[in-house]
């Protein structure tokens, strides 16, 4: 009688653990099968580049728009915080790229955290940051009468590119000089080529899901717990079979 109760209790727990792991066992089996046949399925050759997935992995897609200059050149920002003039990297600043103006043979680009000053050829002159006094609420740049103005939520200020000095201004300004427009196809094609190295393959995604790394340390811990429960499931199954054989003999 005691053996029968032990078998019943063991089977109940065996069923509970089995039901709780049902979907995980199927997923781990299918993902393991896919990884085992990765070469045949060409999983490493299939790239994923959705915004949310790249963001989850800490990668960013390059912008699809930028600012066209009077010379026909383009100033825009790539996904790795790089500021580019055509295909040349000229500076680093935090996105988004808010505004661009040309004044006195200089290019000025307003990013989220800095005002980048370049020569007409894209050589870096200065990067004026918020730590140096750049207001944090700026929304655009305006060039008017060879004077640069910074427009922000708190008002308008003049900016001297030589001394990097700011001063409040009450002048009536024209609208912001330019707005971002779609990049030409030649630059988009170049950006797509650069993005290939920073995209995520299906093989990497499946591997990270299979190991739990996709969800960080918590995901790895969860897979570890699943592994331990699978061990318990095997032990309870073996224990139930052994006790059942003993019960039949008795």
Describe this structure in words.
With 250 residues, the chain is α+β, with helices and mostly antiparallel strands. It folds into 2 domains: 2-55 and 199-249, no CATH class; 61-198, YVTN repeat-like/Quinoprotein amine dehydrogenase (Methylamine Dehydrogenase, Chain H, 7 Propeller), CATH 2.130.10.10. Helices cover 40% and strands 28% of the residues. The chain contains 7 helices and 15 strands. The chain has helices spanning 2-20, 22-36, 38-41, 51-56, 185-195, 202-211, 216-249; strands at 47-48, 65-68, 74-77, 82-85, 88-92, 99-103, 106-110, 114-119, 124-129, 138-144, 147-152, 155-160, 165-169, 181-182, 200-201. The strands form 4 sheets. Strands 5-4-3-2-14 form a 5-stranded antiparallel β-sheet, with no helix packed on it. A 4-stranded antiparallel β-sheet has the order 6-7-8-9, with no helix packed on it. A hairpin with a 5-residue loop joins β2 and β3 (74-77). α1 runs antiparallel to α7 and α2 packs antiparallel against α6 (202-211). The longest helix is centred in the C-terminal third of the chain and has 34 residues, at 216-249. It is elongated, with a radius of gyration of 30 Å. The model has no long low-confidence stretch (mean pLDDT 84).
Which SSEs are present, and which pair or pack?
Blueprint: H1 2-20, H2 22-36, H3 38-41, E1 47-48, H4 51-56, E2 65-68, E3 74-77, E4 82-85, E5 88-92, E6 99-103, E7 106-110, E8 114-119, E9 124-129, E10 138-144, E11 147-152, E12 155-160, E13 165-169, E14 181-182, H5 185-195, E15 200-201, H6 202-211, H7 216-249
Antiparallel strand pairs: 1-15, 2-3, 2-14, 3-4, 4-5, 6-7, 7-8, 8-9, 10-11, 11-12, 12-13
């Amino acid at each position: 009688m005691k053996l029968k109760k032990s078998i019943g209790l063991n089977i109940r727990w065996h069923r509970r653990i089995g039901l709780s792991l049902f979907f995980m066992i199927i997923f781990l089996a299918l993902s393991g099968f896919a990884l085992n046949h990765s070469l045949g399925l060409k999983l490493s050759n299939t790239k994923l580049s959705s915004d949310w997935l790249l963001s989850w992995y800490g990668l960013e897609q390059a912008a699809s728009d930028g600012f066209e200059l009077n010379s026909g050149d383009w100033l825009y920002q790539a996904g790795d915080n790089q500021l580019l003039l055509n295909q040349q990297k000229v500076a680093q600043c935090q996105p988004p790229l808010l505004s661009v103006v040309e004044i006195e043979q200089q290019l000025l680009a307003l990013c989220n955290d800095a005002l980048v000053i370049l020569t007409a050829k894209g050589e870096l002159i200065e990067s004026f940051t918020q730590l140096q006094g750049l207001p944090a609420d700026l929304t655009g740049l305006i060039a008017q009468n060879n004077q640069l103005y910074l427009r922000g939520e708190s008002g308008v200020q003049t900016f001297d590119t030589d001394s990097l000095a700011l001063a409040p201004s009450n002048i009536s300004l024209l609208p912001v000089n330019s707005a971002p427009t779609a990049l030409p196809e030649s630059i988009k094609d170049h950006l797509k080529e650069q993005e290939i190295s920073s995209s995520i393959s299906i093989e990497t995604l499946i591997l990270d899901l299979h190991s739990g790394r996709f969800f960080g340390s918590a995901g790895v811990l969860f897979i570890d717990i699943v592994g331990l429960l699978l061990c318990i499931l095997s032990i309870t199954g073996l224990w139930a079979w052994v006790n059942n054989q003993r019960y039949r003999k008795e």
